[in-house]
Amino acid sequence: FPISPWRAVSLRAMATKKSVFNPALEPFTQPLPETIASSIGRTIARHSYMEWVLGQVLYSLLEISIKQGRAVVQRPQPRQYAASIQGLCAFQKIDCNFDFEELNTCVEAADRARDMLVHSVYMRDINVRAERIHLVHGSWARAQDAEVIRTGDWPETPVLDRAFLTRLRKDVDDAVKCAEGLQKLVDDLLRKLHELRRTNRKYDRRRSDR
Question: Does the pLDDT of residue 64 top 80, yes or no?
Answer without folding.
Answer: yes
